[in-house]
Design a protein that fits this description.
eight-stranded parallel β-barrel; seven-stranded mixed sheet; 37 helices; globular; binds flavin-adenine dinucleotide
């Protein structure tokens, strides 16, 4: 079988056209669908009257309300908080949100019921005038906060157990085997987050194995499909289940899944691989195809997978599975779902600047796709055994009608959902088979799953959320997706721009690459291979290459590999460059801002067109991994477009000021003169281009001095800017070492300096500028930071670990925004530190050009030696939680994690993959903030907490430039997260922010006496 590689983003309109024509059934059959659906909706509405139903409660506190969101966050967080003080703060934080007290139907509220259940207050005692807040306050007064805390914890458990069949597989099997349970088939699911560490993966593997055995023992004698099964998440079985790690996944994950599948096959169970994120679909199909081909599975018809109808590749996926089944002479069980990660998919596509969304953007398109998939799967029987998973009565009725009976397929529902619907269906259609997806696990592991269910129950796009609302007429629920879509040109959500159009008409979002799309990745790699070449970087003065001493540039990943040559300028040549820039200033400054911006926009497009070349050079010269390279290139593109757009606004207009009549007062911005741009090696393209583009956009001429380590990328960027229309007279390049930088700074023609680098060098520049007798010129400095991440006990450990590992180790820690110090509340520290260490151990170090590499080298031998000396010192003085191993060849430094006793022990910025952790006590939170403030830096700060008040408090308390809440703390996006720090971290204004360009210009006010010629004609002509 050839691998599953269909079109990643088929056109919504084309699909809609086909489905709009083919979906409707003849009127009599559509009428039967109506009748059937009405019965089920009636049952749903009839069932929901009773007090205490979780579904009803979620409807009451819909997620579109602040109360609903507060409850969701409370539910998600409370059970994992070990210490009472933090739990109380979380409760207070959430109860303070929204207006619980003002809602109309308070008596149904969760908190009333919850408190009632947990405190033993009879629901009957709660009057309609009672509000959850009121009750809680009353209870707090009477019983104290500890009791309320216990009550809420209990309430959240109740809510959790609504969706979980049992805390252990034995419990779950017992419940499934009860009289009520016997109505249904079961597929058991082991709750938990995806594996972050090898240990996690082993634990899940053991849990799946044990469960298969237990399910097998209780499975009875009926043949498939009427046998129980298990649902397996591939992300739980491998810590790097990602497309770029394909080889590793195939080598390590496939055998694990094969072992589990064999165990399920021996017991004749249904074994379903859950569907996860879209970028993993190709990879999961590769795994599935490989496992399915195992000879030992030959006589087993229980192997299966889930397919998501919201994915635009759903139909090709079905066809592929059918072909695979045919090629193996077997039947596969296929669960059709709509898909659980819609919001995540949309966000990801926007963030990554993908060409399109991999999922539909209108709900009725997902419904149409579902119906199209139903028809395809029914037609592919018996090669496929369809399993239609939905809680939507209209969808169920459509399936029933299209199947023309109850044979050869089953429905599926989630435990705790769809009871009324399926009970009603089973009452009327005795032959129908329904399987329940039954999560099993302890409460702590249920949280992520619970949030998905809460979203599903509470989102107003969801059928279950509206079906039980008596205010919504049944006719609305019966509206067919084809009616809702209407026309092919309405297949897309009108309010959801394409990822490229995220910033509206002002500028295009930089294009990214989906590594999960093998064709995109292969295309990119081919471009990189094709465009790899040796580069020579001389100085460029007035567009002409300068002479000087030439030296080779070696790759930091392999110092024996020469990747280019640089010809560094002499001190005299540096002076010549300054003179040339001074001469070139006037003409560029007089070029209209729009024309200057147009050159930058052309440069952005050229950069995107030549991405292969630049990515190759970034890897070769700066050791950038593919992922880092793509991000950096996108950032450079964004800088060019953003500053172009800003310059048109700020420098392309003259502002008329208010004032007395007979006078025109105009203010405008213009360039300062020669701007000196001194950039670092860690972002040789993005920061270099950012500084230069800002200075140029404002009308300055520029002398750019790139870092000594990375002149090749800089030279190519300058060539590209020249090609795009920036005159050679306006932009000059002077490669060289620190002495050249110092000479340039001291030059009398300097009208401004943009510098990114160490605090030490920034001081030196500042001193030189101050010592000059001449105009006082601005210095825009971005320097380093001792960046911290604060993690309290409400944070989700897996999220923390993802973000900490990415923030500390990505780019081998060589980002000024990188995480240096993680401060973890001691109640949860052991687990979080251990998981961070386990996740760090899964990172691959190596050739940055290899897409599976997570960490490239550090920049040079000096950096490597400094880091190694620092690590050696820490090994003596701190507790080592993780010490990785680095490749012997090249300037690699392995990731390390050390625990310090106090934040004050970290006194300098360590520019590499070294993460320090400290523990703090909840009651000493302020002392922690004081310690962080004492470092004097203020660049980036991460906060992981579910307590909004904590995040707000920290942000108010510390003047840190960029604060990231519940996410990673690197990769600030131009125009979205303006970047730059305070204190020792920089002067501002922020790069990529609305105030940046102003600093590059001077203001000019022109006041004209319009009455000078003898009178104020305009005033005289003004009528009353
Ligand atoms: C037994 C079972 C197993 C499951 N296994 C998986 C699995 O392996 N992987 C997985 O991802 N999910 C899985 N799910 C979850 C499933 O995806 C959701 O329950 C399902 O999407 C809800 O669909 P519905 O027909 O019940 O509800 P509906 O309300 O009709 O549909 C809601 C769905 O529509 C889609 N949607 C919402 N808004 C939009 C929009 N603007 N544009 C496009 N689409 C939109 C989303 O998929 C959303 O979930 C499973 C569900 C069940 C019942």
């Amino acid at each position: 079988m050839t691998p599953f590689r269909p079109d990643y983003y088929p056109d919504d309109g084309v699909l809609a056209r086909a489905w709009l024509a083919s979906t409707p059934l003849p009127p009599d059959r559509e009428a039967r669908v109506d009748t059937e659906a009405r019965q089920m909706i009636g049952a749903i509405r009839g069932r929901s009257g009773g007090i205490g139903g979780v579904e009803q409660l979620l409807r009451e506190y819909s997620l579109t309300t602040p109360e609903g969101l507060a409850l969701m966050v409370l539910a998600e967080g409370l059970l994992r908080v070990p210490d009472d003080a933090t739990a109380d703060r979380l409760i207070e934080d959430k109860l303070g949100q929204g207006g619980f007290a003002t809602r109309a139907h308070q008596s149904d509220a969760l908190l009333v019921n919850a408190s009632a259940w947990a405190l033993g207050i009879s629901a009957r005692l709660i009057g309609p005038q009672d509000t959850p807040e009121g009750i809680l306050r009353g209870v707090v007064r009477r019983l104290g906060l500890p009791t309320v805390r216990g009550a809420l914890r209990q309430a959240m458990r109740v809510m959790g157990s609504h969706f979980v069949l049992g805390q252990s597989i034995e419990d779950a099997l017992a419940r499934a085997g009860s009289r009520a349970g016997r109505l249904y088939r079961y597929s058991f699911d082991m709750l938990g987050e995806g594996a972050r560490t090898a240990e996690d993966a082993e634990r899940y593997f053991a849990s799946y194995s044990d469960s298969i055995e237990a399910i097998g023992r209780a499975a009875g004698n009926k043949p498939l499909p009427d046998r129980p099964g298990i649902s397996v998440k591939l992300s739980a079985l491998h810590p790097r289940y990602e497309a770029v790690s394909r080889d590793r996944v195939m080598a390590e994950l496939v055998p694990r899944v094969r072992t589990l599948a064999r165990a399920a096959a021996i017991r004749g169970l249904n074994f379903t691989i859950d569907a996860e994120e879209a970028d993993r679909l190709e990879l999961s199909m590769d795994v599935i195809a490989d496992v399915a081909a195992d000879r030992q599975l030959a006589d087993w018809d229980g192997f299966g997978l889930a397919i998501q109808a919201y994915g635009k590749r759903a139909l090709p996926a079905i066809d592929y599975v059918a072909e695979l089944a045919a090629s193996l002479g077997r039947r596969f069980m296929v669960r059709l779902v709509k898909g659980a990660y819609w919001d995540t998919e949309v966000k990801r596509a926007q963030e990554r600047g993908l060409p399109d969304y991999p999922v539909f953007t209108r709900k009725p398109m997902t419904d149409l796709s579902y119906v199209a998939c139903v028809e395809r799967m029914l037609a592919l029987r018996p090669r496929l055994y369809p399993q239609f998973a939905t809680h939507n009565a209209l969808t169920v009725a459509s399936v029933l009608e299209r199947a023309g009976g109850t044979d050869g397929y089953e429905f599926q529902r989630l435990h705790g959902m769809g009871d009324a619907l399926y009970d009603s269906l089973l009452e009327r259609h005795t032959g129908v088979a329904v399987r329940t997806y039954a999560p099993v696990g302890i409460h702590k592991d249920l949280l992520a799953y619970l949030v998905r269910r809460l979203l599903e129950n509470g989102a107003n796009s969801s059928f279950v959320s509206v079906a039980a609302d008596p205010n919504v007429p049944v006719e609305v629920l019966l509206e067919r997706p084809e009616q809702r879509v209407g026309r092919p040109d309405r297949a897309r959500h009108s309010g959801l721009p394409m990822p490229a159009d995220l910033f509206g008409s002002a500028r295009k979002n930089a294009a990214g690459v989906e590594f999960g799309h093998a064709a995109s990745l292969a295309g990119l790699l081919a471009e990189i291979r094709r465009d790899t070449m040796l580069v020579h970087a001389p100085g460029l003065i007035n567009g002409v290459a300068s002479t000087g001493i030439t030296r080779d540039i070696a790759s930091p990943a392999d110092p024996a590999r020469i990747v280019g040559r640089v010809t560094e300028v002499s001190l005299q040549t540096a002076d010549i460059a300054m003179a040339a820039a001074a001469a070139g200033f006037r003409s560029w400054n007089e070029t209209p801002a729009g024309a200057r911006a147009a050159a930058l926009e052309r440069a952005a497009s050229l950069l995107e067109q030549r991405r292969g070349f630049f990515l190759s050079l970034l890897a070769a010269e700066a050791g950038k991994t593919l992922d880092d390279g793509v991000s950096e290139l996108r950032e450079a593109v964004d800088f060019l477009r953003y500053y172009a757009a800003e310059a048109k606004k700020l420098y392309g207009h003259t502002e008329t000021m208010p004032g007395p009549t007979g006078e025109l007062n105009q203010r405008r911005l213009r360039g300062r003169g020669v701007f000196l741009c001194i950039s670092p090696w860690n972002f040789p393209l993005a920061i270099f281009v950012g500084q230069v583009a800002a200075a140029l956009a404002a009308g300055n001429s520029v002398v750019a001095k790139p870092a000594e380590q990375t002149p090749l990328v800089a030279c190519e960027a300058v060539r590209l800017l020249h090609e795009a229309g920036v005159p050679g007279e306006a932009l000059h390049l002077v490669p060289g070492a620190g002495d050249i930088g110092a000479r340039l700074v001291a030059h009398p023609s300097v009208a401004g300096v943009a510098f990114t680098g160490s605090t030490e060098t920034a001081w030196a520049i500042n001193r030189t500028l101050a010592a000059k007798r001449g105009p006082i010129v601005p210095l825009i400095a971005e320097t380093g930071g001792i960046n911290a991440m604060i993690v309290d006990a409400t944070a989700l450990p897996e999220q923390v670990v993802d973000d900490a590992v990415m923030s500390a180790f990505r780019s081998a820690g060589q980002r000024c925004s990188a995480l240096r110090l993680m401060a973890v509340q001691d109640d949860v520290a052991d687990r979080i530190i251990a998981m961070t260490a386990g996740a760090a151990a899964e990172l691959k170090l190596g050739d940055p050009a290899d897409p599976s590499t997570h960490l490239g080298p550090v920049i040079d031998a000096e950096s490597q030696q400094r880091l190694e000396a620092h690590i050696a010192r820490l090994k003596q003085s701190a507790r080592t939680h993780y010490a990785g191993t680095a490749p012997a060849r090249g300037y690699f430094v392995a990731p390390h994690i050390f625990e310090l006793n106090a934040p004050g022990e970290l006194t300098e910025e360590i520019f590499g993959p070294v993460l320090n952790v400290v523990r703090y006590r909840a009651e000493k939170f302020d002392a922690l903030l004081e310690d962080l403030e004492k470092t004097g830096y203020g660049l980036t700060l991460g906060i992981h907490t579910r307590i909004d008040a904590t995040a707000a408090y920290v942000a108010d308390r510390l003047p840190t430039g960029n604060i990231y809440v519940n996410r990673n703390m690197i990769g600030a996006v131009v125009g979205v997260q303006p970047f730059g720090g305070s204190g020792l971290s920089g002067t501002g204004p922020k790069a990529g922010g609305p105030d940046y360009l102003r600093r590059f210009g001077i203001e000019q006010t022109i006041s004209t006496n319009t009455a000078a010629a003898g009178g104020n004609a305009t005033l005289l002509a003004t009528e009353e």
